């Protein structure tokens, strides 16, 4: 299965924006958290925190990273909508 987004020409990925880093073509997070998903990523960050998201993504097997990224974004959005005990 393909990653969520693979084009970084539109700007930095969400992780690089939060970390205030330059997003290169070799960025390991750009494919999973493109800048078009900034709102969803911010919700995921409020729930998990950027350091934990980075840690989870680094520990996940390559074939599972797209599922993990999608889950982080969806759980963050659900948490923002409903708060505690929604999921």
TrEMBL record:
The LOB domain is annotated at 11-87
**InterPro entries under this entry?**
LOB (IPR004883)
- Return the similarity comment: Belongs to the LOB domain-containing protein family.
* Protein name per Swiss-Prot or TrEMBL: LOB domain-containing protein
Which organism does this sequence originate in?
Brassica campestris (Field mustard)
What lineage, starting at the top, does this entry show? Eukaryota, Viridiplantae, Streptophyta, Embryophyta, Tracheophyta
């Amino acid at each position: 299965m393909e990653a969520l987004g693979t084009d970084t020409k539109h700007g930095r990925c969400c992780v690089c924006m939060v970390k205030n880093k330059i997003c290169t073509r070799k960025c390991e997070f750009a494919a999973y958290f493109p800048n078009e998903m900034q709102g969803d990523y911010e919700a995921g960050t409020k729930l998990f925190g950027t350091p934990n998201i980075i840690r989870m993504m680094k520990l996940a097997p390559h074939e599972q990273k797209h599922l993990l990224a999608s889950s982080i974004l969806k759980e963050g959005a659900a948490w923002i909508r409903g708060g505690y005990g929604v999921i």
